[in-house]
Design goal:
Length: 426
């Protein structure tokens, strides 16, 4: 581990290890999920749900954390005292426009008939909310904002009084008025999550995981004003917990999603498939790692179209992978997200400047370990320097050197007999 400090004390060269920082001591829940979006610079905005301190004690909370200004801070966006099941807020999704206005979509337990799909924004200054769809048994929304400021949203809804099926709905707000339409209907036992991305023209692109019987993994687009479905032909059975989608600068589509692969003994193991049309025709690659059967997965592309993926391995531990088809490198981060700790939430990977990566997740850990929203990063700056030193000082005797000042003063620290192990690359 090598760290370089300027005379002013700011960190100029990133460390080679990973630093875990507790951003918010909220009680997480794996059902709540979380989402992250980046601003026009390197700012990050994380939407998540759990149990937190509210105006009058402990409440079921929807929260937003960001590192705008160089320090992480958390805001209580909405809260409820009386959920019917578990939490009040589920599956938040977040988008940010170039001006830094934040847009949220989330499922809200209405306490009577199931979930409402809700929309919220601070574009007018104070947070304002509205219900997009009510009295449903599903939600799992995703939200995006295009360069014109138009909001795009997808979500599921179903009412078993009408059919045992799930409707995938698309909503948008041209000229300020919300309109929504049903994109497709799928039997409720045959569908997993859907992901939303926008191309350079602001057209919505949806990736959806359906059972093979229902047509398998597919892409839905409305560039011509009519929804069209393209089935990718993946013969693996998709998992039900994940679908991540991104569009690169050339409007090529990238997908990563969990699948279940028979192991020959009547059971199935979890894997990830990566699909892209970056070379024209669609190609599907099975990534070389076994995953948790119920893993969620996240995907971000950097400016070089290099993919960054976060998922859970078969033991529930956090794994970060980067690269492109045929050239993948994975890093296990067991100390950040160890399997066996209670209620592991969703992890999301976000590349920052250069090689910097953030992985954010909520987790309820076994006492006395702290629970909350965590940021795992392979770089150090003002947002996580305190957490870095808390982890670095015990191991500075173990490996590496510290260089201080522009002069430069140098201190070489002896290695200790004991050695603290970092996450090993897989």
């Amino acid at each position: 581990m090598v760290v370089v400090l300027t005379l002013a004390g700011s960190i100029a060269i990133l460390s080679s290890g990973w630093t875990t920082a507790l951003l918010d001591p909220i009680q997480g829940d794996p059902q709540a999920q979380l989402a992250v979006a980046s601003g026009s610079g390197s700012e990050l905005y994380v939407a998540y749900a759990g149990i937190a301190e509210g105006p009058s004690g402990r409440v079921f909370a929807l929260k937003l954390s960001s590192n705008v200004g160089g320090k992480w801070s958390s805001t209580l966006v909405d809260w409820s005292l009386r959920p019917r099941y578990g939490l009040s807020f589920y599956d938040p999704s977040v988008a940010v426009d170039p001006a830094g206005h934040v847009y949220l979509a989330f499922g809200f337990d209405n306490g009577t008939y199931g979930l409402n799909t809700r929309y919220g924004t601070n574009a007018g200054g104070a947070w304002a909310f509205m219900t997009i769809h009510s009295n449903q048994y599903e939600s799992s929304p995703a939200i995006a904002v295009d360069s014109r400021g138009l909001i795009h949203m997808i979500f599921y809804w179903s009412r078993y009084s009408t059919c045992y099926c799930v409707h995938l709905e698309y909503a948008t707000n041209p000229e300020g008025a919300w309109t929504n339409s049903t994109v497709l209907n799928v039997p409720d036992t045959m569908v997993g999550r859907a992901g939303l991305a926008l191309d350079s023209q602001g057209n919505a692109i949806i990736g959806i995981a359906r059972s093979i019987e229902a047509g398998g993994v597919a892409i839905l687009t409305n560039a011509e004003g009519v929804w069209r479905t393209q089935t990718l032909g993946d013969l693996a059975e998709p998992g039900k917990e994940g679908m991540a989608i991104a569009v690169d600068a050339g409007d090529h589509i990238h997908l990563v999603y969990p699948v279940l692969v028979p192991d020959g003994s009547g059971n199935a193991t979890g894997r990830l498939h990566y699909a892209t049309n970056a070379q024209g025709a669609w190609s599907i690659t099975e990534l070389p790692w076994e995953t948790d059967r119920y893993t969620t997965v996240s995907l971000m592309l950097d400016s070089a179209n290099r993919a960054h993926i976060a998922f859970s391995d078969r033991d529930g531990g956090l794994v970060y992978a980067a690269g492109a088809p045929g050239n993948w490198i994975a890093t296990s981060l067991p100390s950040a997200h160890p399997g066996g700790w209670a209620n592991s939430g969703t992890a999301v990977a976000v590349p920052g400047p250069g090689s910097r990566v953030h992985i954010l997740f909520t987790q309820s850990r076994n006492y006395p370990e702290p629970s909350g929203l965590f940021d795992v990063s392979n770089g150090v700056d003002s947002t996580n320097v305190d957490a870095f030193w808390a982890q670095a000082l015990p191991v500075l005797y173990l490996e590496g050197a510290i260089f201080v000042g522009a002069g430069i003063g140098m201190a070489i620290l002896p290695r200790a007999v004991a050695r603290r192990r970092s996450g090993a690359a897989r």
